[in-house]
Design a protein that fits this description.
eight-stranded mixed β-sheet, 16 strands, binds adenosine-5'-triphosphate, binds magnesium ion
Length: about 425
C-alpha cells in the first residue's frame, strides 16, 4: 500500500506557514538588496566532491548527514546540505573571479539526514548571504549588520544574542592546533569514539562535539583566542569596533567554533533560548581558504545562513494577506456573466474569489470563511437590469451598482 505520510524529517508547507515563509524571504530580499547584494540560485544537487572538498571530510555533515546517491550516469551526486559550497563552485565555474567583489544572497531547500526533532528537519530551508573577494574586516561588519537588520525587521532583535569569535588565520590555527592536540591526547580516555577518530586529522572538530563527555573535557581545553597572531588580533579588533560603531550588540564567546572546516577569522552565531536545543537561528563566518581549496584562485569570502523554519517559529503572525472580493452569482446566466465580471475586476487590480457552486447561503458562507471583504451578488433579475448587489461583508450594508461601473463601486475594497 502507498505510504501517504511525508518522508520522515520532511514537511508540507501549508498556506498559513507559506505566508510566514514568504514574509521572511521577502523581508530578507529587501534587506539584502539594501546592502547591494544580488540574488543568485544554484542547483539543488551537485557532484558530491563539491561538498566533501569544501565542508571537510571529517565534519558531521559530510560523514553522517549528506543525501548522496549514484545517478543513472554513474556520478556521485549529493543534495545540497548548505549553500556556500554551491555558490563557491558557481563563482569559480562561471569565471566570476573577474567581477570580485561579488555580493550574493540566495534561499532555498537544504537536505541533511539528521535525527528529526523540533527545529531540525531533513529537508529544511535556508536564507544565505555570501560576499566573495573582500579581505577587509568591513565586509565582516556589513555582513553582520545585514543579519542584525534582518532579525530586527523580523521583530527578533530582543530574542537573539550575537555570539562572536575569531578562529584566526593560518599561523594562529597551526599554533593552536598543536596545543589543543597535546591537551586532547592527555585526556583521550574520556573522549567519544567520534572525537578520537577525528582528533588527529582535525582536532578543532572536537570542540564542536555535542557529546556530553567531550563537552566536559573541551570546557577546560586551551582557548584559540590565546593563540591568535597579531594580524588576527587586529582583524578581530576591527570587526568588534565596527560593530560597536554601528550599535550592534554582541558578546565574545571564545569557545565558539563552527561545524565546517572552511572558516577563518570571524565566526558568529545568533542564538535564542526560545527554541530549546535548536537555539542557533543564524550562523556563519569568514572562509578565506575555501575558493582555493575548491580549485579556484585565492579569494577571501564571508557569509552566513539562517534556517527559515527556525525563524518562522519565532516571528509574530505576519501582516494579513489582502482580502478578496467574492462573486456570488445565482443561476446559470449569472454564473456565466460572473466569470467575465471576475476577469475584468482582476484586470482592474482586485483580488477576486469564485466559489463555483452552491446557493446564496453557501456561497456567502465561503466568502466569510476566506475573509472576503465584499460580495458581488448577481441574480437573474439583477442581470436583466444590468446591476449587481454589492455587500460590504464587514458592516453588512449593501447597495446596488451597475455592472459596467463595478470597479468604481468596489473602489473601497481594492487591496
Ligand atoms: P546545528 O548546530 O543546529 O546543527 P549547524 O551548525 O549544523 O546547526 P549550519 O550548518 O550553520 O547549522 O546552518 C545554518 C542554520 O541553518 C542553522 O543555524 C539553523 O538555523 C539551520 N539549520 C541547520 N540544520 C538544520 C536542520 N536540520 N533543520 C532545520 N534548520 C537547520
Ligand atoms: Mg548541524
Amino acid at each position: 500500500m502507498t505510504r501517504l505520510q511525508p518522508v520522515r524529517g520532511t514537511h508540507d508547507i501549508l498556506p498559513g506557514e507559506a505566508r510566514r515563509f514568504r514574509h521572511i524571504t521577502e523581508t530578507f530580499r529587501r534587506v539584502a538588496e539594501g546592502y547591494g547584494l544580488a540574488e543568485i540560485a544554484t542547483p539543488i544537487f551537485e557532484f558530491t566532491e563539491v561538498f566533501a572538498r569544501s565542508l571537510g571530510d571529517t565534519t558531521d555533515v559530510v560523514t553522517k548527514e549528506m543525501y548522496t546517491f549514484t545517478d543513472r550516469s554513474g556520478d556521485s551526486i549529493t543534495l545540497r546540505p548548505e549553500y556556500t559550497a554551491g555558490i563557491a563552485r558557481a563563482f569559480i565555474s562561471n569565471g566570476l573571479t573577474q567581477d570580485a567583489p561579488c555580493k550574493f544572497f540566495a534561499w532555498g531547500p537544504m537536505f541533511r539526514h539528521e535525527r528529526p526533532q523540533k527545529g531540525r528537519l531533513r529537508q529544511f530551508h535556508q536564507l544565505d548571504v555570501e560576499v566573495l573577494g573582500v579581505a577587509e574586516p568591513q565586509a565582516d561588519i556589513e555582513v553582520l549588520a545585514l543579519a542584525h537588520d534582518l532579525l530586527t525587521e523580523l521583530g527578533l532583535a530582543d530574542k537573539v544574542t550575537l555570539e562572536l569569535n575569531s578562529l584566526g588565520d593560518g599561523p594562529s590555527r597551526a599554533a593552536y592546533r598543536a596545543a589543543l592536540l597535546d591537551y586532547l591526547h592527555a585526556h583521550r580516555d574520556g573522549l567519544s569514539e567520534d572525537s578520537l577518530n577525528r582528533m588527529d586529522r582535525n582536532p578543532l572538530r572536537v570542540l564542536d562535539s555535542k557529546d556530553e563527555g567531550d563537552r566536559r573535557i573541551v570546557a577546560n581545553a586551551p582557548i584559540l583566542t590565546d593563540y591568535l597572531s597579531s594580524e588576527a588580533v587586529d582583524f578581530f579588533a576591527a570587526v568588534r569596533e565596527g560593530l560597536a560603531a554601528l550599535g550592534i550588540p554582541f558578546t565574545v564567546n571564545p569557545r565558539l567554533v563552527r561545524g565546517l572546516d572552511y572558516y577563518t577569522h570571524t565566526a558568529f552565531e545568533f542564538t535564542t533560548d526560545a527554541l530549546g536545543a535548536q537555539g542557533t537561528v543564524l550562523a556563519g563566518g569568514r572562509y578565506d581558504g575555501l575558493i582555493e581549496q575548491l580549485g579556484g584562485p585565492a579569494t577571501p569570502g564571508i557569509g552566513w545562513a539562517s534556517g527559515i523554519e527556525r525563524l518562522a517559529m519565532l516571528i509574530d503572525e505576519p501582516p494579513a494577506a489582502p482580502r478578496p472580493v467574492a462573486i456570488v452569482p445565482l443561476g446559470a446566466a449569472a454564473e456565466a456573466r460572473g466569470l467575465k465580471i471576475a476577469h475584468d475586476l482582476r484586470r482592474a487590480g482586485f483580488i477576486v474569489d469564485m466559489g463555483y457552486r452552491g446557493n446564496m447561503g453557501r456561497r456567502l458562507k465561503r466568502a466569510d470563511k476566506i475573509g472576503a471583504r465584499a460580495a458581488v451578488i448577481i441574480g437573474d433579475d439583477e442581470l436583466a437590469r444590468g446591476i449587481a448587489t454589492v455587500r460590504d461583508l464587514d458592516s453588512g450594508s449593501q447597495s446596488e451598482a451597475s455592472l459596467d461601473g463595478l470597479a468604481g463601486a468596489l473602489a473601497a475594497f481594492r487591496p
